[in-house]
Amino acid sequence: MSIRLISRRTWGAETPTATYTSIPGTEGVKIHYTRGHVDPEIVTNHELCGKLVKAIQAEHMAGARDEPRVDIGYNVICCPHRRVFVGRGLYALPAANGQGQNTAHYAVLALVGSSGFTEPNDLLLHGIRDAIDYLRANGNAGSDIKGHRDGSDTPCPGAPLSAWVEQGAPRPPSPPATPVPFVQPTPKTTEALVKNLPVLKPGDSHRHVKTMRAVLFARGYEPANLHSSTYDPNEADLVEKVKQFKSAHKIPSGADPLVWDAACWEAALT
Fold this sequence. Notes:
Layout: E1 5-6, H1 8-11, E2 26-32, E3 37-38, H2 47-62, E4 76-78, E5 84-86, E6 105-110, E7 115-116, H3 122-139, E8 141-147, H4 159-166, H5 187-195, H6 207-218, H7 236-248, H8 262-269
Parallel strand pairs: 1-5, 2-6, 2-8, 3-7, 4-6
Antiparallel strand pairs: 4-5
């Protein structure tokens, strides 16, 4: 599986307050955790991942724990859905490894905490390894894989991740070679689901606009904004994703090519 990057635009990052310091590469990476409570529901609700990343960026830029930073301190952030959020990105000096230690390693944050969700699941560990491979291939990162506490007086990245790093940060066992058979929902089940979902038109404000955005995301048509409940016809990225989805599934456009109707819901939910 190739890396699934979530761009800064997609997760709604604030603009840095200053230009990053450039670095030519690093000796490797340092793994971090959030040092706080992470809601266990994050494992089943990907929307919480984006909210947490935004909260961490706001905390760093406000100086809630130390001096204000120009941006989130990490180069990339990994979530328990095997997604990798772009933070400062490639060739940018991080601001998370500790004084005097940022030039040697990229900073990789795992969305686990000191309470709540504390044990990384396999998808999160795969995501961290995806991020490491990405930083090596594209950001001139060396072979080092360390925890934040290696060289710093901190419990970060917590006992479970520290133990994993000490083992060499191995990938979890790969999924079975033979995929689990997909059971097609019966027409009655799909019909019942679609019957309870509204037709959405550009300009509508409805809670199920977020549902539409979520199913587009799940099917690989990732809109830049996952959280808005407004179907804004001027939101070019969303409009294009709806057009692409309808075209790929050969859904007739009718009078308005942007209407999200029962045929769209059925194609997205089956």
